[in-house]
Amino acid sequence: MTATRLFGTLAHRAAILCFIAFALFPLYWLLKVSVTPNDLLYSEGVRMWPSRTTLDHFRFVLANSEFPRFFANSLIVSGSTALVSTVLAALMGYALSRFQFRGKLWLAALLLITQMFPLVMLVAPIFKILSPLGLTNSLTGLVIVYTAFNVPFASFLMQGFFDGIPSDLEQAAMIDGADRFTAFRHIILPLALPGVAATLGFVFTAAWSEMIFALMLISGSEKATFPVGLLTFVSKFSVDYGQMMAAGVLALIPACLFFLLIQRYLVQGMTAGAVKG
Amino acid sequence: MTATPIPATYRRPLRQRLAVTLEPWLYCAPVLILITAVMLVPLVLGISYAFRDIQLLNPFSGGFVGLEHFKALGQDDAFLRALRNTLWWTGASVFFQLAFGLILALLLNVPFTGRGLAQALVFLPWAVPTFLAGLNWAWLFNPVIGPIPHWLTALGLMDEPSNILADPSIAMWGPILAATWWGIPFFAITLLAALQSIPKDLYEAASIDGASPIQRFFSITLPYLAPVIAITVLLRTVWVANFADLIIVMTNGGPADRTQTVASYIFTQAFKRLDFGYASAVALVLLALLLAYSMVILVFRQKLSNRDK
Asked: Where would I find the ABC transmembrane type-1 domain in this sequence (chain A) (predicted)?
C-alpha cells in the first residue's frame, strides 16, 4: 500500500514538472536566444545555454531601433484603454449590481452577445467609419476601439465585485443625506479597489496583446504599437533573431508583471464566483 | 404630519419616480453609447457590406451586388479549404486544450508543498501576448534557431531538420501546438475552480463505502464537472474558431493555404486585398455557422438535462 502511494506521489510530481517544463520552455528559449552572441547563434544552435552571453541585442534594440517608441505607444494605448474601460465598467457594473430596472436582462444579454460574435467581422466596417473621422493611424482611434471591446467583460467583472459589498453601506449613507452617486464614489468604490485593480490589469493585458485591429488601423511606424512594430520588424529584418527575441522579451515584461500580481487571486476569485452562481 | 402641504407631496413622487426610472440608465449610458457606436453599428454595416461591392482602393465601388459575393464563395476553392481547415484547427485545438487542461486541474487539485509556485508557473503562458506566443513558437519550429526540428530528427521522426510550418501536409500542427500551449491555463483555471467547489464530504463518504479513486472520478468528479466543461467548450470553440492571431503570425495561412482558416481568410481579404465586400460576405457565413453551432449545442444540452429528469 505504501509502495503504491509512493509511486503515485512520484508520478504526480513528475507530471507537474512536465507541465511546468512545457509551459516555460518557449519563454526560456526566447530568453536564451536574446542573450546569445551572434557568432554563437548557429554553431551552438541546440545547446541549452550558450557558452558566452551578451546583452548587446538588448542594448541595440533599446538604443538604435524604434522599439522604445513602439513600447511607449503600446503603454499609452493600453494604459488609456484600461483607465477609460475601468471607469465606464465601474458605472455599468454598479448599475447591474444595485438597480432593478426594466430592460436589465436585455442589457446583460447585449453585453454577452458582444463577446460572442467574431470581432474580425468588424475590421472592415470599423476602418470605414474611423477613416473619415481621422481616427485611423491614431492612438485615440485604437483606444476607442479597444475600450468598446473590453468594457463588456470588465462590466461583468466589476458587477461581481460590487455584488460582494453589502448594500446596507450606501443605504446608510443615503439615509444620512448623501445622494447615490456620492455614496458610490466615497463608500462603495474605495471598498471595491481590489476589483478596480483586477479590472485595470485584465483590460491592460488584453489591449497590450491586441494585434488584428492594430495591424488594420495603423500604418507606418510613427503610431505603431508593439505587435505592429514587432511584426514589421520580423518581415523586414528576418535575419537578426537575437534582436527580435530581445524585443520579444521586452514585450513580455508588462504582461508578466501583471500576471504575477493577480495569479494568486485567479482560482480563488473564480471559486467564489462558482459558489455564488 | 397632517400639516404637510399637499402640493409638495403631489409633485415630488412624480419627479422622483422619473429620477428613479432614469437613474440606472445614466450609469449605463456611456457603455451603451460606446458599444452601439463601435460594435453594433459596424456589425449592421458589415452585414450590409456583404451585399455590396466595397473595395478600398476602387473609388467606383460601393454599389449593391446582391448575392454575387455568396455565389463567388461557392466557387472559391480557397474559402472551401478554409472551412475544412477551420473545423480541423478548432476541433484539435479545443480538444487538446481541454484534455491537458483537465489533467492539469486534477493534478493541481491535490495539495502538495510548492503548489502555489507550480500553479503560477504553469499558468504563465496565459499572460503571454498572443502575437508573441505565435512568434515564439514559429522560432522554435525554425531549424536555424529552434530546437524542435533537431529533436524530431534525433528521434527519427524527420529525415533532416526542416520547418514544420513550411510543410503543407503537417503545417497546421504548428499553430495547433501553439494554441494548446497558450490555452491550457484557461481550461485548467476554470476546471480547477469547479473542482474546488465539489463538496469534500462526498469523496469521504465514497471512500468509506470502498470506492476506488477511478470509481470516485467517474461517479463524483466527472458528473460535477460536466456542466462546466460543456459551457466552457461551447464558449471556447466559438472563440478559437474566430481566433486568427496565431495563424496570421505563424504561417499567414500558408503554405499553399493549408493553414488558412475562415477567420484568417477574412483578415487576409480585408487587410491584404482591401476587398471589404468579399471579406464581409465570408464573415457573415462564419457568423451564421457559429450561430448554428451554438444553437445545436444548446438544444443538445437542453435535451440531455431533460432526459436526466
From this structure: 71-262
